[in-house]
Amino acid sequence: MNQPQVYKSNALVEASYRLTPAEQRIMLCCISQVRRDQTLTDEVMYRVSVADYAALVGTDSHSTYKEVADAALRLKRREVWLREFPNGDGQRPRTLVTGWVQSIAYIESEGHIELRFTKDMLPYLTQLSERFTRYALSDVAKMTSSHAIRLYELLCQWRDAGKREVAIEWLRDSFQLGDKYPALKDFKRRVIEPAVAQINEHSPLWVKWDQRKTGRRVSHLAFTFGEKAQKAPQKPRKGKTKGKAGGKAPSASGSIYGIPMAVIETHARPGESHEDAALRILEERKN
């Protein structure tokens, strides 16, 4: 069965914006429904089924509707800063600041929501003839770090090359980090290391990274990456196997970095994202 594919103009991949993982998934679910062979208008509504969303992420659909509905409302208020035209037509004379969606419809009785893209967003999603990035929606579905999803897209742009070097300040601006993690060690620990770990765990790519200096200052990050080797299907072993206590437990759904969502929500500080709360809890457990 063909997997839903995400197509984005490279200008959108490199745009400056910040979305939570839930907002990203909703946006990508809608983008994967765009027909590339048809002219897209801002009259089309794209549906996100809570059951399909839950199956994609691997969570219980009974507890997912509120998450999807809340994320969709936040998405309505999000901005994206675009500095280039789609299809490789060069830089805009002025930066375009626009929204992702212009309207949202909630159909709770049927368990889905519907979104309509803004008119400004359409050229970055359809009729792309060059300079666009494509990947399977399932590649990022289980990532719980918004930075991991963004970084994965940036690497997919250079998938054939297997290498990409980016300026740290440019990456911070693209992720809209603002004044968060001003120290390089915190930026690497809170953003880059978790993102790389999730790409290695959940996506078809393996990735390694290093840093580069301009003079005495670390100014760039260099990523090398490639396709993971396809594992041959294992034949079932003959005979009975005995369960062992203390074996490695599988990753449970509804967790971030191994911290259950219930624990994160209980200990999260006012205004703190689930991702940041999980990282803080991990740090506190080490001490």
TrEMBL record:
Q: Where is the composition biased (Basic residues)?
A: 234-245
Specify the superkingdom: Bacteria
Region: Disordered, residue numbers: 227-255
**Where are the annotated coiled coils located?**
none
Q: Which Gene3D superfamilies match?
A: Winged helix-like DNA-binding domain superfamily/Winged helix DNA-binding domain
Matching entries from InterPro entries are given as: Initiator_Rep_WH1, WH-like_DNA-bd_sf, WH_DNA-bd_sf
The record ties this protein, via Pfam families, to: Rep3_C, Rep3_N
**Can you give the residue ranges of the Initiator Rep protein WH1 domain?**
6-156
GO MF annotation, one: DNA-directed DNA polymerase activity
Please list the GO biological process terms of this entry. DNA replication initiation
Family of the protein in this entry: Belongs to the initiator RepB protein family.
Q: What is this protein called?
A: Initiator Replication protein
UniProt organism field: Halomonas saccharevitans
